[in-house]
Amino acid sequence: MTRSLVIGIGNPLRGDDGLGQAVVEKLSASGLDADALAVHQLTPELAEPISSAGTVVFVDAAHDEPPGKVNCSRIAPALGDDDPALSHHLGPATVLSLAEKLYGHCPAAYIVTTGGDQFELGASLSPPVRLAVPEVLRVVQHLLQNGTENRTNGTPSANFSETPILD
Fold it and tell me: Lower CB density within 10 Å: C or N end of the chain?
């Protein structure tokens, strides 16, 4: 069976932006049966490990959501004829597209976000985000256990959207 992959995005030196990396640390310490990567940003090099995953879950802080609100959405590969590898900013949909184009496989993919409150240099996770971490962990674990079987059920307390996210 192909292993799942969790990618925690963000900078732990910038307050709530460190959510993704904090979640990856907790998942790794829990002995979760999945690969986990903590990254500051998405890069084209991630296309290779993504292409060999059965399911991929991105975890990131959101600037446009209320602090502590957990959301989960399915992600589709980016569409278009642009060369995404030449873009200044790569989002999850673009990296998925690269995996498909370069390696011939794009796994089922999701993004779990939590609205952040503080992103200043030197800050730690804000209280709303710190309190949301257990819910983020629960949603990620559910997706890893059920992601390929049932894509929309089972995330009852997170706001789950089947709408593809394109960047």
Answer: N
pLDDT in tens, 54-71: 999 999 999 999 999 999
Whole-model pTM: value is 0.85
Comparing C-alpha atoms, which of 8, 66, 11, 61 is closest to residue 35? Answer: 8
Q: Looking at the structure, give the CATH architecture of the domain made up of residues 5-165.
A: 3-Layer(aba) Sandwich (3.40)
79 CA to centre of own chain: 19
Domain spans in the chain, listed from the N-terminal domain onward = 5-165
For every residue of 54-105, DSSP letters joined together read SEEEEEEEEEEEEET-EEEEEE-PPPSSS-GGG-S---HHHHHHHHHHHHS-
- Non-local (6+) Cβ contacts of 97 within 8 A are 77, 78, 79, 84, 106
Q: Which residues pair with 5 in a beta bridge?
A: 35, 56
Cα dihedral sign for 66, 70, 72, 78? positive
